[in-house]
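Tokens in:
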């Protein structure tokens, strides 16, 4: 007998978040595989810019205030119907996060909303819950599972896994399966949770739409100016300050270049001041938040993508930045940090250049090398495109995830 249709609730920290294209386009690809998707964000992202494809999800997303009569009634109904499950889930979340102020506070803040989600998911006939991020969303998915029995999974990305692993063992132990976006992350999960976690933790890379992110038609570039693009939130973990310093070094060497930062974030003012002090205002531009179509166009005009990620002072660390996948899919070489899962996408000298995190001089040397050799840029770009097609294609990887969702649907 064939299984019934899968109906999956996607849980994430915020929606619609412009930088989290990997969630948005994964949901769309999973839907194309016949899986119904419902969106349950822990918080609503207040933004004036969103990808057009996010709008239909926003209109039907299950946004909830932190406290309302509806949320309160859900607590009372679960307490009356299943007091043991309700109190057990609450105290398990609080107990497992002792020692982590951030996660303990998250338990207090998000538990009522998770209970409200659980009630709505039961009413909708949700067959599986998938959370993006091993932090609060995965904890909420665990609570929903304990209250309803609906199976869950979660994807562990970067800082959500590397920064604080309180409650990770509990999240992994009860999950139907766990997705690590890199072999690096999988090894970390198994080391933290024990060998029993190995069987249920799979590596499934985030992917990009290779029919959208594709090489622009170009031959060997004959222009003297090297066009560098760096996409991502303007935040310490992205390492943009080291790229600006590398640009200062390039300018001092007489290298002709321009550098565009795509994105916004808390470091915008500080980075702008650094550019001004370095006398680079005519070479370095901050383009702000851009849609996917804008990013595709900018990558099509670029010669190299820079991704100078670094571990932040508060323990944040990237997984495999989607920006690198997008640049490689567009057939341009990458200069990136030798960090976390990045070497699983970029092999030094094959798809681009890897440099030590935080080493502006090495970053400048790599960029100068690519500036001097247009043929090398084309060769690295071709290898990067091939790598993305084989391991980081959105449709392929979302199809594998959809199979997992359907496997747990009721008969």
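Residues out:
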């Amino acid at each position: 007998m064939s299984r019934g249709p899968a109906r999956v609730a996607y849980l994430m920290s915020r929606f619609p978040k412009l930088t989290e294209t990997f969630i948005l386009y994964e949901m769309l690809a999973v839907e194309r595989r016949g899986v119904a998707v419902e969106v349950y964000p822990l918080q609503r992202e207040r933004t004036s810019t969103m990808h057009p494809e996010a709008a239909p999800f926003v209109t039907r997303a299950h946004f909830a205030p932190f406290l309302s009569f509806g949320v309160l009634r859900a607590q009372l109904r679960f307490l009356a119907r299943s007091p043991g499950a309700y109190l057990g889930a609450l105290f398990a979340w609080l107990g497992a996060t002792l020692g982590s102020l951030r996660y303990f506070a998250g338990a207090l803040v998000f538990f009522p909303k998770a209970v409200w989600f659980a009630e709505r998911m039961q009413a909708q006939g949700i067959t599986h819950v998938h959370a993006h991020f091993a932090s609060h969303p995965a904890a909420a998915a665990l609570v929903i599972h304990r209250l309803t029995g609906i199976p869950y999974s979660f994807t562990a990305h970067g800082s959500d896994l590397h920064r604080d692993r309180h409650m990770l063992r509990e999240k992994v132990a009860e999950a139907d399966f766990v997705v690590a976006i890199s072999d690096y992350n999988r090894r970390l999960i198994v080391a933290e949770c024990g060998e029993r976690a190995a069987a249920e933790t799979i590596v499934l890379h985030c992917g990009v739409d290779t029919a959208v992110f594709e090489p622009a038609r170009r031959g060997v570039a004959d222009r003297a100016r090297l066009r560098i693009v760096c996409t991502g939130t303007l935040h310490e973990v992205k390492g943009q300050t080291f790229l600006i310093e590398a640009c200062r070094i390039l300018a001092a060497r007489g290298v002709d270049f321009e550098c565009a930062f795509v994105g916004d974030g808390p470091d915008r003012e500080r980075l702008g001041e650094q550019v001004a002090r370095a006398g680079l205002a005519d070479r370095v531009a901050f383009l702000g938040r851009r849609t996917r179509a804008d990013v595709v166009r900018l990558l099509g005009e670029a010669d190299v993508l820079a991704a100078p990620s670094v571990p932040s002072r508060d323990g944040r660390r990237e997984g495999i930045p989607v920006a690198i996948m997008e640049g490689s899919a567009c057939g341009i070489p990458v200069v990136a940090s030798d960090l976390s899962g990045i070497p699983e996408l970029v092999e030094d000298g094959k798809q681009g250049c890897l440099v030590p995190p935080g080493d502006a001089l090495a970053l400048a040397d790599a960029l100068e090398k690519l500036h001097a050799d247009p043929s090398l840029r084309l060769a690295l770009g071709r290898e990067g495109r091939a790598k993305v097609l084989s391991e980081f294609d959105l449709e392929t990887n979302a199809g594998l995830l959809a199979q997992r969702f359907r496997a747990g649907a009721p008969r």
